[in-house]
Input
Amino acid sequence: MGLLAPGGQVHVMMLTIMGVSALLVGAVIDPVAGIVPLIGMLCLMMATFVAYFWRDPDRPIPKTNGILLSPADGRLMFVVRERAIGRRPVNPRWPPARLRLTRSRAIGGPNPSTIR
Output
């Protein structure tokens, strides 16, 4: 619950403070040929983009059995059933130590710890 994910709060606050202070300096002290207010507006626009990127909306998760949820805000385009052969796919270009396979089981599906 919240407006921003924890990783983005510092970035948004810094850009907002920089933008507002640049606008105040440009309006009160000296605009320096309009460059200072322009920098302030650019900082505020970047803060808006960063806030949109790091947003953390509440997502309702349905309690229905047998459904698959897409990660983040994407769409689930297709589901492929894989054979359980007990090994990971390996590309010769990938070093084995850096290979990570992330799987998510469906609600009500088999428990991954029982599949060997």
